[in-house]
Amino acid sequence: MLSGTFISFEGPDGAGKTSALQAITAQIAPVLGDRLTITREPGGNPISESIRAIILDRANTAMDYRTEALLYAAARRQHLAETILPALADDKLVLCDRYVDSSVAYQGAGREIGEAAVAQMNEFATDGLLPELTVYFDVPAEVGLHRIQAHRDPKKVDRLDVEQAAFHDRVRAAYLRLQAAHPERIKLIDATQAPEVVVEQALALIKHTAQAYF
């Protein structure tokens, strides 16, 4: 039995979801203590972090797009088995920076290898487990790319960040399709708003979904 609550954060590059997650964590960690698990994809444990390093290494220009998608799915499976499922079984609130929707948007649409095919691959990897809530931080691609160029440490710019604008346009369009298809799970926040407003709205969604923890 999985008695915990699973919530994911999604958004195009530069949407500010990771910064929002950090701000939210600072507010709720003192309240929840060890009932809170903060994690990320790809990553979240040593094996998955090792796969992350391979995927995002800018030197790996020869990586096939299907290889990339399979590596994300493999990292996700290990992340579930080692990190997320044990936390949910232990009645924890799990907040995860990216999950399956990222693969559908980035590999399925951005890489143009097929959204349905990537979704099916991840259905197998996750055994169908989806978050109870996905907070989607929406920004136009050009806004996100401008933020990356203006604020991100050049050493932290990865293989996906340096893709052309058309790639990021396809990613955002796929996210919007996912949100329209699953409005009960995926809740959209306009991430062009002031950061404090974005954090406030995201936290309200989390508290509504995970009322037992607050």
From TrEMBL:
Entry keyword NAD: no
MF-aspect GO terms: dTMP kinase activity
SUPFAM superfamilies documented for this protein: P-loop containing nucleoside triphosphate hydrolases (SSF52540)
Keywords, comma-separated and alphabetical: ATP-binding, Kinase, Nucleotide biosynthesis, Nucleotide-binding, Transferase
Keyword Transferase: yes
Residue positions binding ATP: 11-18
UniProt EC number: 2.7.4.9
Start and end residues of each Thymidylate kinase-like domain: 9-201
Catalytic reaction(s) noted: dTMP + ATP = dTDP + ADP
InterPro entries: P-loop_NTPase, Thymidylate_kin-like_dom, Thymidylate_kin_CS, Thymidylate_kinase
Alphabetical list of Pfam families matching this protein: Thymidylate_kin (PF02223)
Entries under Gene3D superfamilies matching the protein: P-loop containing nucleotide triphosphate hydrolases (3.40.50.300)
Main EC class the enzyme belongs to: transferase
PROSITE patterns, A to Z: THYMIDYLATE_KINASE
Domain of life (superkingdom): Bacteria
UniProt function note: Phosphorylation of dTMP to form dTDP in both de novo and salvage pathways of dTTP synthesis.
PANTHER family, alphabetized: THYMIDYLATE KINASE, UMP-CMP KINASE 2, MITOCHONDRIAL
Family stated for the protein in its record: Belongs to the thymidylate kinase family.
Protein name: Thymidylate kinase
